[in-house]
Design a protein that fits this description.
8 helices; ribosomal protein; 70% helix; 2 domains; mainly alpha; 159 residues; single chain
Length: 159
């Protein structure tokens, strides 16, 4: 489209407005009634929905972190070690696992998590570290690294 004067160019809102409205109507397609057909109503509802979607993404991340922490804490209590002691022992042993990996191991591979907890506890005992963050003692079973070693497990399976 060719414009001979700047005034005509400024007054022309055609194609850009059509595509802008079309984008909003596509986002409002699943709404009912005027919320989907009337632009002034649809644009308010679409903007509100996009704000909720943005907040929901952050809340989903936080919910997953809370779930991972709960799983790890529960598994740590089974093995008589605190979460802080587990993380500190694994860090000192150069075992760099994040929350998601630890929670997956705690939920789906408890023997592997038991070995990691034993390694962390052994490293903490060697270093003489005292966990002062949690005064309440866990009520699980005491771990010993020799009890969960791979060689002992292999000997049991060969028999």
């Amino acid at each position: 489209m060719v414009f001979l004067s700047i005034a005509n160019w400024v007054r022309s809102r055609g194609p850009d407005e059509i595509w802008r409205k079309r984008r909003v109507f596509k986002l409002a397609a699943h709404y009912i009634g005027r919320r989907r057909n009337c632009y002034s109503v649809a644009v308010r509802n679409v903007h509100r929905a996009l704000v909720y979607a943005t907040k929901a993404r952050q809340l989903k991340k936080q919910d997953m972190i809370d779930l991972w922490n709960t799983r790890i804490t529960a598994a740590c209590e089974q093995h008589n070690i605190t979460y802080y002691t587990l993380k500190e022992g694994l860090d000192r042993s150069n075992i760099m696992l994040d929350r998601k990996s630890l929670s997956d191991l705690a939920a789906w591979e408890p023997r592997t998590f038991e070995c990691l907890a034993a390694v962390a506890k052994q490293k903490i005992d060697y270093d003489g570290f005292i966990d002062g963050t949690d005064r309440k003692q866990p009520t699980g079973v005491n771990l010993n690294l020799k009890d969960v070693m791979l060689e002992a497990w292999l000997k049991e399976n060969k028999k």
